[in-house]
TrEMBL record, chain A:
Keywords, alphabetical: ATP-binding, Nucleotide-binding, Repeat, Transport
Pfam families, sorted: ABC_tran (PF00005)
Organism per entry: Mycetocola tolaasinivorans
Record protein name field: Sugar ABC transporter ATP-binding protein
InterPro entries, alphabetized: AAA+_ATPase (IPR003593), ABC_carbohydrate_import_ATPase (IPR050107), ABC_transporter-like_ATP-bd (IPR003439), ABC_transporter-like_CS (IPR017871), P-loop_NTPase (IPR027417)
Domain of life, per lineage: Bacteria
Molecular function in Gene Ontology: ATP binding; ATP hydrolysis activity
UniProt domain ABC transporter: residue ranges: 6-247, 261-506
UniProtKB/TrEMBL annotation, chain B:
Segments crossing the lipid bilayer: 40-61, 73-93, 122-142, 154-175, 195-213, 245-264, 276-296, 303-321, 327-345
Cellular compartments annotated: Cell membrane
Compositional bias (Low complexity): 11-22
Membrane topology (UniProt): Multi-pass membrane protein
InterPro entries per UniProt: ABC_transp_permease (IPR001851)
GO cellular component: plasma membrane
PANTHER family with a match to the protein in the record: ABC TRANSPORTER PERMEASE PROTEIN YPHD-RELATED-RELATED (PTHR32196), RIBOSE IMPORT PERMEASE PROTEIN RBSC (PTHR32196:SF72)
Major location category of this protein: membrane
Name of this chain's protein: ABC transporter permease
GO molecular function, one term: transmembrane transporter activity
Keywords carried by this UniProt record: Cell membrane, Membrane, Transmembrane, Transmembrane helix
Length: 506, 353
């Protein structure tokens, strides 16, 4: 028995030349809870995926209980006693809790190819009992709440214990992002129980939570481990400084380019807007060149609000006026006609048309500038595409390249270009525009948002981090439980602190 | 505040709430027999529709509600049911099998030509029967392998293999339908036991086996999981390819059995023996409540769907509706059924962030 249950030495991982993990070393001791923090894109998720056998590392080694191991598949990682609770939930909703817990590793639950339902359910009940969960193994997952699903994930992760010789390592990837209040307390209780027989890696970007449960905290930044701290010798402020790694954020966010918008004409006015079970009584105005940031945790209603503003979902109360005219926004088509653009968070699903070229994507939303009647003018389109590629510094071999082959940042720029080509564009809704981008690409996107404003376009921003929201916005709406709790003025020189926003969010 | 939180798809078409408001307490009481049946056939819309149709035709036509018509209904239902049961396993994956008619043609001819017949001197008895069924299984294997390992969309692959099946059958057919001369074999599926058509007894046997496979085997259970969320199943270390191929084998076997059943019924092997069954079978599966997107449905529900189709066809004939209009009615029914089963899935298909 060594005291280190899991160790990673000099781990390296690249994606198409982008270094995601750069010489990472990491150690987990017996019955310890280790926190792992870092901004988006810092490399946390990549490390976890290497540990769970989803990615193969390009260099370095992994040691389990002192022995060198390689995980080629998720099943091998599980067999070594590493249980994952994924950030994106990994339960199949169409089957029962018991089947999910033992998916692919039914063990005694399937004898001679025949399901022994009694045994399977009993085994599942044992796992659920470990965490004291009242969920029935027979329930189909689609009937469970997010919090309950999280508990099932935990039970599933714990089932690695029976399969491995050694004590389990449980990795919790952003487990708190869907939990609130009491549910959060339940999770923390579970972690306290787990540490008696397991070792835990706790990944989160909520620093106070990390400090609360972790014995030690690793800070990741840009693919490197920049600090390791014991809980006793660090506070939230220092962690934050280590994680962000810069004293002044103003330059990064192009704050100097932010202009005041007082007295500019009102583009959009939202009054008493409501949608059953999502949000209610939302009021704000958006002026030309203004950025309105909307912040709130998952379930606060902000995602639904952004979808309503783009016509992707209907609303049942209140009104939206655009340039003085009331608009119904019953569909995205109507929204585009009215001059509203939307850049979704799930680029791959909703943002880009995979398989089409960069040029085709750029002119997808509104080809009017390069068309004569219903016909595209090929030469005009080519010239315009080249100009956008140059202007936005889109790194692509040429305009005819399949957009799927571009990196995330460059895809995102092409998506931005898509809306910018529309001369009708008045309002642009940005839903997590920098998610998954590296720092350089982020900076480009920030610069770009400033440029939009300078052209008199109003921006509604759902940002990835509070810092981003604060730095980019002129006005910040803080949502909770479907209501706007607070509205902050965030003009240059009058920025609220992150902690001010957090008060309204939780 | 990044919230790339789990955005799990909205509730599938079960008509039940997608999120319970509190943890579901363990249910100490065993479900009643009625609840069990409801769980199996899905309850709700399709079952109600079936009852309404039966009631309507019973009132509207004098002959519908009679022993002799019940017997002929069962006979008409049998072959359709066997095909649809096989198809259910494939549709649960979110795939399609369009090779039904070609496979039925091939397997009926293989069966008849290996049994005692008026074309050659072979008389292999039960071996012929098994060969006929296995012809279907082999087509299913081919479908599965081409679809899964060569990553060709299933509807395209099976469209192609279906044509191969028709071609193979045409060669075997040789200009004239060979007659099945083995009365013992034919008697397995021809005629009645009491008021029960023998074909219906075969179909019931297939139904029972299929229900057991669906409930108690990996290919049955993983079908739901793969159709529900294939990447997750793959990450769990399940050999997804194997179970997908097996599902296609089940579907092919269903069509193979159906081909043999049809040959028993008609006494010949024929290229056009499965004509019209493809469309009706898909309609039956979807109508029963198995969603084309996969993950939701089941063999029990398909029973209801196939029964609706059969009752509708039979009732329209008794009402004296023009047969050419009937096919349009069926078309209408499948469109309505797809919309109905897909209605609550609209959000899921729309890929909400």
């Amino acid at each position: 028995m060594t005291d280190t249950v899991l160790e990673v030495r000099n781990l390296r991982k690249e994606f198409r030349g982008v270094v995601a993990l750069d010489d990472i070393s990491f150690e987990l001791r017996r019955h310890e809870v280790v926190g792992l923090i870092g901004e988006n894109g810092a490399g946390k998720s990549t490390l976890l995926k290497v540990l769970s056998g989803i990615y193969k590392p390009d260099g370095g080694e992994i040691l389990r209980e002192g022995k060198k191991v390689t995980f080629r598949t998720a099943a091998e990682s599980a067999a070594a006693g590493i249980g994952m609770v994924h950030q994106e939930q990994s339960l199949v909703t169409s089957i029962s809790v018991a089947e999910n817990i033992f998916l692919g590793v039914e063990g005694a639950g399937v004898a001679a190819g025949v399901y022994r339902w009694g045994t399977l359910r009993k085994l599942a009940q044992d796992q659920l009992d470990k965490i004291g969960s009242p969920i029935s193994p027979k329930t189909r997952v689609e009937h469970l709440t997010f919090a309950e699903r999280q508990m099932v994930e935990l039970a599933k992760a714990l089932s690695v214990e029976e399969r491995a010789d050694s004590e389990p390592v449980i990795v919790l990837d952003e487990p708190t992002s869907v939990l609130e209040g009491d549910e959060l307390e339940v999770l923390f209780d579970q972690i306290d129980r787990l540490r008696k027989f397991a070792s835990i890696v706790f990944v989160s970007h909520r620093l106070d939570e990390v400090l609360r449960v972790s014995d030690r905290v690793y800070v990741f930044k840009d693919g490197q481990c920049v600090a390791v701290r014991d809980r006793s010798e660090v506070d939230v402020d220092e962690l934050h400084r280590l994680m962000v790694g810069r004293e002044s954020t103003a330059e990064f966010y192009h704050e100097a380019k932010q202009t005041a918008v007082i007295g500019e004409p009102v583009l959009m006015e939202v009054s008493n807007l409501g949608k059953t079970k999502a949000f209610e009584d939302v009021n704000f105005t958006l002026r030309a060149g203004e950025v309105v940031g909307i912040t709130g945790v998952l379930g606060s209603g902000r995602e639904e609000l952004s979808r309503v503003l783009f016509g992707a979902e209907g609303f049942d109360q209140g009104s939206i006026t655009l340039g003085g005219k009331t608009v119904g926004l019953r569909s995205p088509v109507e929204a585009v006609r009215a001059g509203i653009g939307y850049i979704p968070a799930e680029r791959r699903i909703e943002g880009i048309a995979q398989g089409l070229s960069v040029q085709e994507n750029i002119f997808l939303a509104d080809p009017s500038t390069v068309s004569a009647g219903p016909f595209l003018k090929p030469r005009a389109a080519a010239a315009a595409a080249d100009e956008w590629i140059r202007k936005l510094k889109i790194k692509t071999p040429n305009r005819g390249t399949n957009i799927s082959n571009l990196s995330g940042g460059n895809q995102q720029k092409a998506v931005l270009a898509k809306w910018l080509t529309s001369p009708k564009l008045k309002v642009l809704i940005l839903d997590h525009p920098t998610r998954g981008l590296d720092v350089g690409a982020k900076e480009d996107v920030y610069g770009f948002i400033r440029e939009l404003c300078a052209r008199g376009i109003g921006v509604i921003l759902l940002a990835d981090t509070l810092e981003e929201t604060i730095a980019l916005s002129h006005t910040i709406l803080v949502m909770r439980d479907g209501r706007v709790q607070q509205t902050f003025d965030a003009h240059p020189g009058n920025k609220p602190r992150p902690v001010d926003l957090v008060e309204g969010m939780v | 505040m990044s919230q790339s939180g789990p955005q799990v798809a909205d509730s599938p078409a079960t008509g039940t709430p997608s999120r319970a408001s509190s943890p579901t307490p363990p249910d100490p009481t065993a479900p009643s027999g009625f609840a069990r049946v409801r769980g199996l056939i899905g309850g709700g819309g399709p079952a109600v529709a079936l009852v309404v149709l039966i009631a309507f035709f019973s009132i509207a036509t004098p002959n519908f509600f009679s022993v002799s018509n019940a017997s002929s209904l069962l006979s008409q239902l049998s072959i359709l049911l066997v095909i649809s049961i096989g198809l259910t396993f494939v549709i649960l994956l979110g795939s399609l099998d369009l090779s039904v008619e070609g496979v039925m043609a091939s397997s009926s001819l293989v069966f008849v030509l290996l049994a005692a017949n008026d074309r050659n001197d072979l008389s292999l008895g039960f071996v012929a029967l098994i060969a006929g069924v296995l012809t279907g299984s082999l087509f299913g294997l081919l479908n599965g392998v081409l679809h899964v390992y060569l990553k060709v969309p299933s509807f395209m692959v099976t469209l192609g293999t279906g044509a191969i099946g028709v071609g193979l059958a045409t060669v075997l057919f040789g200009g004239r339908a060979p007659r099945l001369m083995d009365d013992g074999l034919r008697g397995l599926g021809f005629g009645n036991v009491g008021i029960f058509p023998k074909l219906a007894l075969i179909a019931i046997l297939v139904l029972i086996v299929a229900l057991l496979v669906q409930k108690f085997t990996r290919v049955g259970r993983y079908g739901y999981a793969i159709g529900g969320d294939e990447p997750v199943v793959r990450l769990s270390g399940v050999n997804v390819e194997r179970y997908k191929v097996l599902s296609f084998v089940l579907a092919g076997t269903g069509s193979g059995i159906a081909g043999v059943m049809a040959a028993m019924q008609l006494g010949v092997g024929d290229v056009s023996i499965g004509a019209g069954f493809q469309f009706t079978a898909i309609t039956a599966v979807v109508l029963g409540g198995t969603a084309l997107v996969g993950g939701i449905g089941g063999v029990g529900k398909t029973l209801v769907g196939a029964a609706i189709i059969t009752v509708l066809a039979n009732g329209l004939i008794l009402l004296g509706v023009n047969p050419y209009v009937q096919i349009s009615v069926q078309g209408l029914v499948i469109v309505v059924a797809v919309v109905a089963t897909g209605w609550s899935l609209r959000k899921r298909v729309r890929a909400i962030k």
